[in-house]
Write a structure and sequence with these properties.
Number of helices: 8
Helix content: 25-40%
Low-confidence stretches: 194-201
Distance between the termini: 14 Å
CATH class: Alpha Beta
Strand order of the largest sheet: 3-2-1-4-5-6-7
């Protein structure tokens, strides 16, 4: 098993209540470590804002379902140690990271200025060119993964499984590592000398 495959990755997925994408209605987190999916965590979240019909139809999450659920600040004490413990991983990661960044900003929560991450959508485009497209549901179907799409817990587990498949194919995560600026809400461009490999690797 290579060093990268032995590493610790935190695959996560968020669902949002409306088109602003600055609040979370559900989050799923799956720990990937020692070349296997480890523990998973899922919860509905009270986004403390309105729901759009489109998002309700997409995720199946309604205002009634999140009534009485913890808000993002209440969850953060549990989420922060998890998210800090490995390299963040998501499918179409810039979207999930942007939602996380906006939640942190709008609730006035200080965490980190930047975080290392990998995107399984980007990885699969390079490593699995034979797949018809690189959407999470298409990849899951092609790889024989169980998926309840747009359920954050199921999506995070599928993301973790796709990551492992890609790591087996590539042998290393280093070419796919990126840095996300949580303050500017964008991926940082590599410097002329290349991005510094995150210490978490």
């Amino acid at each position: 098993m290579t060093e990268s495959i032995r590493g610790r990755f935190i695959a996560f997925d968020v669902e949002t209540p409306n088109a602003h994408s600055d609040r979370i209605s559900a989050i799923g987190v799956t720990v990937v470590e020692e070349g296997a999916l480890q523990k998973s965590y899922y919860t509905l979240v009270d986004p403390q804002t309105h729901f759009d019909r489109f998002n309700v139809a997409l995720t199946g999450i309604t205002p009634a379902m999140v009534a009485g659920k913890p808000s993002f600040p209440a969850l953060w004490r549990r989420l922060e140690p998890l998210l800090s413990s490995g390299i963040l991983t998501a499918h179409n990661a810039p979207f999930d990271l942007s939602v996380l960044a906006r939640c942190l900003r709008d609730y006035g929560i200080s965490w980190r200025e930047t975080v290392p991450y990998v995107c399984t959508c980007q990885m699969s485009r390079r490593l699995l060119p034979q797949v018809p497209d690189h959407k999470l549901d298409t990849l899951s179907r092609c790889l024989g993964l169980d998926l309840t799409h747009h359920h954050a817990g199921s999506d995070s587990r599928a993301c973790g499984a796709i990551l492992l498949h890609c790591l087996q194919a590539a042998g290393t995560v280093r070419p796919f590592l990126r840095t996300y600026d949580l303050t500017a809400i964008r991926t940082l461009r590599p410097s002329a000398g290349g991005e510094r490999t995150p210490d978490l690797l």
